[in-house]
Structures are given as C-alpha cells and as structure tokens.
Amino acid sequence: MTSWAGLRPSPLPTTVAWDPAMTAYNFGPSHPMAPARLELTARLAAALGLFDLEHVSVQAPEVASDVDLLAVHSAEYVAAVRRSSEDPTTPDPERGLGTEDDPAFAGMHEASARLAGGSLLAAEAILSGTAVRAVNFGGGLHHASRERASGFCIYNDAALAVQRLLDGGVRRVAYIDVDAHHGDGTQSIFWNDPRVLTISLHESGLSLFPGTGFANEIGGRDAQGTAVNVALPAWTGDAGWLRAFHAVVPQLVQAFEPEVIVSQHGCDSHKLDPLTHLNLSVDGQREAANAVAGLAARFCENRWIATGGGGYDITGVVPRTWSHLIGIVAQHPVQLTAPVPEAFRSHVREKYGDTVPELMGDGVDTWWRSWEVGYDPADAVDRTIIATRKEIFPLYGLDPWFD
C-alpha cells in the first residue's frame, strides 16, 4: 500500500516577468528610482536558484500597446507621454511629466509600457491557466492615475493587470498595497468600481507623500467600502505593521470574496530606506508577503499576481526583499537564515562599493500582538486600526470592535 506521509503537493505553475530591457526605465543617475534595483534583484534571485525551478517560467514582457494602456489611462495622457518620450526637453507639468519626480527621458513611453507589459503578461498567464501565480518585481507603479504621472510612476501596471483580469471574466479582484506610500493612483482608478477592493497600508499622509490615504477615503458612491486605507504613524515597526495588517486585511478579503489577488510590495517601509519613516525589517516584509500568499490560498484558489514598487536602499534591502517575494510566490521560500550568495555580495562590492548583509534576513523578532487581545487607545497604531475598522467594517456587516 502506498504511503502518503510526507508527500507535498506539486508547486503551482508560476510566471516571472523579467528581461534586462526592463532597466530602460531610467530617470537618470541621481534619481532614487535606480534601474539597478531590478538588475540586482534578478541577479540575486537567479543566484538563489529561483529562476531555475522547474515550475517557474521566466518570460520577457512586451511593450504594452496603446490599446492595452487605454484600459486605465486616457488617450490624451498616453499621447502626452509619447510626446515627452520623443522630446524630453519639453515638460508637461500638467500631466506630471518633466517634473523633479518624473523627469522626461528619451524612450520613456516604451520603457514604461514594457513594465506595464510585465503585469499584463502576469494577468494573461492567470486568465489562460498557464500559471496560478505570477510576479512582476519591475511593476507596482501605483501613483500613476488615469490622466497623470506621479511619484516616479508613468503607467499604472498594477491597475492594468486588475482591469485585464476583469475584462477576462474575473468578477472581483482584491488589490493589496504594502508600499510605504499610499497607493493613490490605483485607488483613484477603481474608486467607483464595486468589483475591485483596494487596500493600502502605508505611512500616514501627514508625514509622507502623497498626503492621502486616510481612513475616511472609502470609495465612490457606487462602491462604498471598496477603498480601504490604514494610515500608519511614522516609525511604525514590524510588530505594529503586522498587527495592523492582520486586524484589517484578512477580514475584508474574506468578506469581499475576490477571485484573484493583485498585490504591490514596495519595500520602502524598511528602516534603512532613505525616503520614508517606517521601521520594518526584511523579515517583516517577508512576513507580509507570506500573509498575502496565505490569503490567496484561502480565498482565491492561490490565484495571485505580485508586483514590486518603491524601495530605495538599492543594494542591501531591495534585492533581498524581492527575492523573498519571488520565492514565496513560487512556493519555494528562501529562509531568513540562508546566506546571501558570495558571488552576489562580491558583485555589489566591486560595482557599487557597498557591503551587503551576509544573511537573507535582518535577524529580528517579528512577533506581533493580535488584535483579539484588545484595543489600546494609548497606542497610535491601534487608533489607526480602529479608525479604519469603524469606517469600513460595518459596510460588510462586521463589527469594528470584535470581528
């Protein structure tokens, strides 16, 4: 008789969108959105063997067509990006182009549309069934809105993936954004669409760009409760962040009943990030990705598209966090105690003069206090949590104090 003890289910087919051409998204040598973030992530993921897994397909995305882009952007905006791409010397600040955050550069349209193509590739893989999970670590450009560039983002690839899923017959999509900055562009695009639940956990707009994302932003007239915002106080660390996530996100995902999750994993919430004021570790960011994976498994038959996003500690944080993300998406998690391959560390020393940590984790304790043990009105994180729960939970028949 066959013994089934110890057998594990086969890993899910996984698509990774990657091609070195994606590094053409380049605002210049002094801009924080350095294309090296992507090259170093791919280099580390490859060194860890993640691209060689039998069930993982690494595919080069195509440049998204104008027809593709018009699913969430206006024709006037796409035309403006094309003009700035062809003539970077002529700014269009009304459209957010040629600004300090989003300087125009030659080939900008093609470079931006290729990153968008990565998330569209992921969506098509889910729709066709060739993959159950997918990751585009070059995506997550969540500040771009229908009509305007913003916050280093030209085309909103995550919104394009969500819309492609909807157009392909998916009835409901949950978008979960864990970047340190509010996912304002994605929220605005689906503001009045009851088929899309957007959840953003971010540093409060009182202390960080874009200055939005408060608890009372709950969606349009026809979609009340489908915009969810957890505006965390500056300096929130792993324990507070994970407490907030688990006090809000699982309950709403369960109530919303999505068929696919699309997530944005900006890692600028790390304590070493130069642009933000949160205090997470790589360990905490890995745990966030694990939590999203668990939601996809529980509620979406594992259907999940993960994207990158912000993250400006280029050599030490971004490659490790996003390699963890790739491993989790591929059901081949990298252990926090695993060594960072010496070949990768040597490459970074020689090319960038930086010293990369020896291990894949930061060696911290990410223990967090469950919401079920009680609400502390003296705790700023708890006040944030209850503000969001009071706005949103009753709209789903949930009790903001006890569910």
Write up what this structure looks like.
Residues 81-104 are annotated as: Disordered. Keywords: Acetoin catabolism. This is Acetoin utilization protein AcuC. 53% of the residues are buried. The chain has eleven helices and eight strands. Helix 1 (36-47) packs across helix 9 and helix 8 (282-299) packs parallel to helix 9. By secondary structure, the protein is an alpha/beta fold. The protein has one domain: 3-Layer(aba) Sandwich (Arginase, Chain A), CATH 3.40.800. The radius of gyration is 20 Å and the shape is globular. An eight-stranded parallel β-sheet has the order 2-1-3-8-7-4-5-6, sandwiched between helices. 34% of the residues lie in helices and 10% in strands.
